[in-house]
C-alpha cells in the first residue's frame, strides 16, 4: 500500500503458489509455457530476425520515381514521361539480334577419321581368335573343335556365317580381303541420315582426333550408311572367288561392321551459339527527361509495356553495396526504435510480458501475408479481363486492419497505433515505396483500432471488420482520385470492392484464427476470451452451481462488488466479474464444510480446529488444480490463492486457543493462515476486499448506510494492517474509491422495503441471527 496517487509501486516477488500434482495435459501446457517464455524473451534474436527479414523483403523494392501498373490493352489516361535521361535497353531488338547471332553459327559435325581402322581391327581380332582357338583345341584332342570354337567367339557372328568361317578355318587371305573392304569404304565420309544434314545450308566439319575444321556447303562427298554398306558388298564380290551363296553371306557379315563416322555435335553447337549470343551488345535507346513513354489515349502494346518496364528498372537504384548498406541502416534504425518503444512501455505494462516479440511477430506475419496475397494475384489475374486483371487493385485486398486489431486486443490502442505506423511504412515500402498505399494502410489500421476500442462485445469483431472494410473502400477511391493514375473508374471501384472484402471478411477470419493462438502463445487474457469464460454453461460453473450453490451465489455477489471496485480505480471490470465466477471452484470437492452451503449441520463441530483449518485452506489448492486442468488462463488461476492471501482464519484460531491445554504451549498463528501469496495486482486486491466485505455484510443487522460504511472501513483497515496489500500497486486513494464503490452497491442491495400488510416476516424474538451470520463469516 502507498499514499501515492500517480506513481505505481513496484510489486515484490511472488510467493510460491500452492500446487498439487496435475494431469498430463496440464503439465504439458506448463512445459510449453516455460519454453515459449524463453523464446519470446530473446529480444536481441527477435530484432535480428526482424532486420534480416525486412531487408530481404525490401532489397528488391525501388526508392525512386514510381510508374503506374499498366496492362496490355489498357488506354493511357495521361502522358507517362521519363523522369530523367535514361538509357533504356530495347529488350525486343536485343533479343532479335541475339537470335540472329545464334542462327549465324553453323551446325557442328564430327568426322571420326579413325573409326574405320578400329572396325577393321575388331574384324582382325575375330579371325585371329578363331584361328588360335582351333589350333589349341586340336592339340588338346577335343573331339569337335569347331563347335567349341564357335561357342567361344563373339555372339554377333550369325551361326551360318560362323560355320562358313570354321569351314575356311578363318583363312588369313579371306581376313585381308574383308579388312581391306572395310578400311577402303570407311575412309570416306558416312552419315547416319544424310537427309537431315542436307537441311542445313552449310556445316562445320571437325576432324577427330586432330580437330581440324572445314566448312562444307556441298554434301556430295558424304554418303548415307546404307550405300556405304552396299559398297563393301560390291568390293567383296569382286575380290572373293567363292560360291555366290558364301560370297553374299560373308559380304553381309562384313557390311554390318560399317558404321557412320560423321555425326552432329549438339553440345559444341549449343555452346558456340550461346557464346555468340552473349557477345551481342545490348541495344540501348536514349530517353530524354520529359520524353513521353506513352501518350494520353494511346493503347498499351507489348512493345510499349516493355519500354515502360525497362524505364522503371533503369530509374530504380541498383542493388549496389551502397544501396544495400543504406537500406540496412534504415531498417536497423526502425528495429532500434521498435525495441526502445516496446522496452519503455513494458516497464509499466503488466498485461503483456513480451511486448517486443508481439510487435515483431505481428509485423512479420502481416508483411508475409501481404507478400503472399500479392504474389498470388500476380500469378493468377493475368489471364482475367479488365478490371479483374489489375494487379495494383489487389494491394487493397490485404487485411492489414487485422494486425492493429490484434495488437489492440492483446495490448492496448495506444500501442496498436504505433504498431500501425511501422506496418504502414513497411507496407508502402514493400510496394515500391508508394506513399498513397502508406496513407491507406495507416487509415485502415486506425479504423480498426477505433472500432475494437469502442466495443468489446461478442459481435465486436464482426462490426470491426465492417468498419475496416468500409473505411478501406472509401479511402481507396479517394486516394486513387488524388493519385490521378491511369486506372479507369471500373478499376478504382474494383479496388474499393476488394478493400471492403479484405476488411469485412478477411479481418474477421484472420482474427478468429490468430487470436486464440496468440492468446496461448503470449499468455494474454483478452476481453473476447473473458466473454467466452463468462458463459454459465462452462462445466466448472455448472458443477459449482449444483454442488455448492451457496458458494456459487457468493461468487456472483463478489463479482458484482469487484466489478464496481475495478471501475472506480480504472481496472478491468470484465476480468474482475469473470474471475469471481471461478475464485471459489475449489469448494466443489467438499462443499458441506463451507457455511454458505450448509443446511443445519456443521461438520466442523466434530473436528479439531487445526483439521478444520486444513480443510478450509485446501480449497485454494483444489481450486488451482481444477482451474489448470480445465485450461483456465493463468491470470484467473492467480486470483484463487491471492484473494485470500495469507489472511488468518480467525474463527478456528480463537476456537483452538480456547480449547487447547495451556500446558501444550501457545497456538501458532501460522497454522491458521492461508498459504498465499498475497495479492500481486490491483485486481487481486479488489477481490480480497470484495470477498471479505461481502461476507461481513451478511452479519450487519439493519444494514443502514452508516453501518455498512463502518463495516467496510473496519474490514479494509484490518486487511491493510495485516499487511495483505503490501505487494500490489494499490494506493490509499484507490482504496478510498473502492470503499465508496462498495458502499454504493451494498446500500442498493440492502435498501429497506415497506412491510406488506397482513404478512409478518419478522423473526421470533431471541433468534440468534446475528450470532449465526457472524459464525458464517468466521468460518469463511
Mean pLDDT: 81
* Count of DSSP-assigned helices: 30
Q: Note poorly predicted spans.
A: 2-20, 62-66, 763-780
- CATH architectural name of the largest domain: Orthogonal Bundle
Give me the Rg, rounded.
47 Å
**What is the CATH level 1 assignment of the largest domain?**
Mainly Alpha
Query: What's the story with the biggest beta sheet?
Result: 4 strands, mixed
Count of separate structural domains: 3
Please list the strands of the largest sheet in the order they lie side by side. Answer: 6-5-3-8
Q: Name the helicity range.
A: 55-70%
Describe the structure.
The N terminus and C terminus are likely disordered. It contains 30 helices and ten strands. It is elongated and about 145 Å long. A hairpin with a 3-residue loop joins strand 5 and strand 6. With 780 residues, it is mainly α. The two termini are 24 Å apart. Helix 15 packs parallel to helix 19.
Kindly list the characteristics that best describe this protein.
780 residues, mainly alpha, Hypothetical protein af1432, 3 domains, four-stranded mixed beta sheet, two-stranded antiparallel ribbon, 30 helices, 60% helix, elongated, disordered N terminus, disordered C terminus
Q: How would the blueprint of this fold be written?
A:
Blueprint: H1 24-40, H2 43-58, E1 80-81, E2 86-89, H3 91-104, E3 107-112, H4 115-139, H5 145-152, H6 159-167, H7 172-186, E4 189-191, H8 194-197, E5 203-208, E6 212-216, E7 222-224, H9 225-239, H10 244-255, E8 262-264, H11 266-278, E9 284-287, E10 292-294, H12 302-315, H13 321-346, H14 355-380, H15 401-410, H16 413-430, H17 435-453, H18 460-483, H19 489-522, H20 527-533, H21 539-547, H22 549-569, H23 573-582, H24 609-629, H25 634-642, H26 650-659, H27 682-697, H28 705-721, H29 732-749, H30 769-779
Helix pairs in contact: 2-13, 2-14, 3-11, 4-5, 4-7, 7-9, 9-10, 13-14, 14-15, 14-16, 15-16, 15-17, 15-19, 16-17, 17-18, 18-19, 21-22, 22-23, 22-27, 22-29, 23-25, 24-25, 24-26, 27-28, 28-29
Amino acid at each position: 500500500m502507498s499514499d501515492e496517487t500517480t506513481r505505481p509501486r513496484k510489486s515484490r516477488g511472488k510467493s510460491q503458489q500452492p500446487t498439487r500434482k496435475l494431469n498430463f495435459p496440464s503439465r504439458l501446457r506448463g512445459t510449453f509455457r516455460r519454453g515459449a517464455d524463453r523464446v519470446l524473451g530473446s529480444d536481441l534474436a527477435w530484432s535480428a530476425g526482424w532486420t534480416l527479414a525486412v531487408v530481404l523483403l525490401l532489397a528488391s523494392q525501388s526508392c525512386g520515381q514510381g510508374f503506374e501498373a499498366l496492362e496490355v490493352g489498357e488506354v493511357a489516361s495521361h502522358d507517362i514521361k521519363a523522369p530523367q535521361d535514361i538509357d533504356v535497353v530495347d529488350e525486343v531488338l536485343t533479343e532479335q539480334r541475339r537470335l540472329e547471332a545464334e542462327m549465324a553459327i553453323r551446325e557442328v559435325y564430327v568426322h571420326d577419321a579413325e573409326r574405320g581402322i578400329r572396325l577393321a581391327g575388331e574384324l582382325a581380332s575375330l579371325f585371329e581368335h578363331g584361328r588360335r582357338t582351333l589350333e589349341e583345341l586340336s592339340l588338346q584332342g577335343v573331339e569337335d573343335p569347331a563347335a567349341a570354337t564357335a561357342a567361344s567367339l563373339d555372339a554377333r557372328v550369325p551361326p551360318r556365317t560362323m560355320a562358313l568361317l570354321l569351314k575356311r578355318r578363318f583363312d588369313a587371305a579371306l581376313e585381308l580381303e574383308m579388312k581391306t573392304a572395310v578400311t577402303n569404304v570407311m575412309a570416306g565420309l558416312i552419315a547416319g541420315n544424310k537427309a537431315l544434314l542436307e537441311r542445313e545450308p552449310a556445316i562445320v566439319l571437325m576432324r577427330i582426333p586432330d580437330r581440324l575444321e572445314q566448312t562444307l556447303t556441298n554434301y556430295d562427298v558424304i554418303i548415307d550408311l546404307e550405300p556405304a554398306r552396299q559398297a563393301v558388298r560390291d568390293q567383296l564380290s569382286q575380290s572373293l572367288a567363292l560360291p555366290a551363296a558364301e560370297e553374299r553371306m560373308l559380304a553381309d557379315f562384313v557390311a554390318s561392321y560399317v558404321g557412320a563416322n560423321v555425326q552432329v555435335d549438339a553440345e559444341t553447337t549449343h555452346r558456340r551459339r550461346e557464346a555468340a549470343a552473349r557477345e551481342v551488345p545490348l541495344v540501348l535507346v536514349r530517353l530524354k527527361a520529359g520524353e513521353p513513354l506513352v501518350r494520353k489515349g494511346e493503347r498499351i502494346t507489348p512493345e510499349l509495356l516493355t519500354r515502360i518496364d525497362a524505364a522503371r528498372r533503369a530509374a530504380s537504384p541498383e542493388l549496389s553495396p551502397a544501396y544495400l548498406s543504406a537500406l540496412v541502416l534504415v531498417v536497423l534504425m526502425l528495429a532500434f526504435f521498435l525495441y526502445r518503444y516496446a522496452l519503455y512501455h513494458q516497464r509499466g505494462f503488466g498485461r503483456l510480458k513480451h511486448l517486443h516479440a508481439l510487435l515483431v511477430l505481428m509485423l512479420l506475419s502481416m508483411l508475409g501475408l501481404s507478400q503472399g496475397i500479392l504474389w498470388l494475384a500476380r500469378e493468377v489475374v493475368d489471364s482475367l479481363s479488365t478490371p479483374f486483371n489489375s494487379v495494383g487493385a489487389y494491394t487493397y485486398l490485404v487485411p492489414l486492419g487485422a494486425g492493429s486489431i490484434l495488437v489492440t486486443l492483446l495490448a492496448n490502442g495506444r500501442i496498436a497505433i504505433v504498431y500501425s505506423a511501422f506496418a504502414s511504412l513497411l507496407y508502402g515500402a514493400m510496394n515500391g515505396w508508394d506513399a498513397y498505399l502508406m496513407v491507406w494502410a495507416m487509415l485502415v489500421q486506425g479504423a480498426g483500432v477505433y472500432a475494437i476500442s469502442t466495443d468489446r462485445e461478442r459481435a465486436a469483431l464482426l462490426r470491426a471488420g465492417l468498419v475496416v472494410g468500409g473505411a478501406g473502400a472509401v479511402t481507396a477511391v479517394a486516394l486513387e482520385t488524388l493519385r490521378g493514375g491511369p486506372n479507369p473508374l471500373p478499376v478504382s471501384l474494383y479496388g474499393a470492392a476488394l478493400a471492403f472484402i479484405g476488411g469485412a471478411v478477411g479481418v474477421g477470419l484472420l482474427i478468429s484464427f490468430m487470436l486464440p493462438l496468440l492468446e496461448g502463445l503470449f499468455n494474454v487474457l483478452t476481453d473476447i476470451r473473458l466473454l467466452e469464460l463468462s458463459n454459465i454453461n462452462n462445466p466448472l460453473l455448472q458443477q459449482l452451481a449444483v454442488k455448492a450453490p451457496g458458494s456459487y451465489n457468493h461468487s456472483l455477489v463478489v463479482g458484482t462488488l469487484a466489478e464496481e471496485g475495478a471501475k472506480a480505480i480504472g481496472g478491468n471490470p470484465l476480468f474482475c466479474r469473470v474471475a469471481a465466477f471461478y475464485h471459489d471452484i475449489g469448494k466443489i470437492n467438499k462443499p458441506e464444510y463451507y457455511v454458505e452451503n450448509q443446511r443445519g449441520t456443521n461438520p466442523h463441530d466434530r473436528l479439531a480446529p487445526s483439521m478444520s483449518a486444513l480443510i478450509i485452506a485446501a480449497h485454494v489448492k483444489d481450486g488451482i488444480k481444477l482451474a489448470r486442468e480445465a485450461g483456465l488462463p493463468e491470470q484467473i488461476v492467480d486470483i484463487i490463492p491471492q484473494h485470500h492471501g495469507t489472511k488468518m482464519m480467525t474463527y478456528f484460531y480463537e476456537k483452538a486457543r480456547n480449547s487447547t491445554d495451556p500446558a501444550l504451549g501457545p497456538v501458532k498463528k501460522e497454522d491458521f493462515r492461508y498459504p498465499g501469496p498475497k495479492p500481486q495486482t490491483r485486481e487481486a486486491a479488489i477481490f480480497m476486499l470484495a470477498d471479505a466485505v461481502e461476507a461481513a455484510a451478511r452479519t450487519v443487522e439493519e444494514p443502514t448506510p452508516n453501518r455498512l460504511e463502518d463495516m467496510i472501513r473496519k474490514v479494509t483497515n484490518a486487511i491493510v494492517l495485516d499487511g495483505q496489500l503490501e505487494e500490489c500497486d494499490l494506493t490509499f486513494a484507490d482504496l478510498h474509491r473502492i470503499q465508496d464503490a462498495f458502499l454504493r452497491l451494498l446500500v442498493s442491495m440492502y435498501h429497506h422495503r415497506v412491510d406488506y400488510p397482513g404478512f409478518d416476516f419478522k423473526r421470533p424474538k431471541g433468534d440468534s441471527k446475528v450470532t449465526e451470520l457472524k459464525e458464517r463469516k468466521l468460518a469463511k
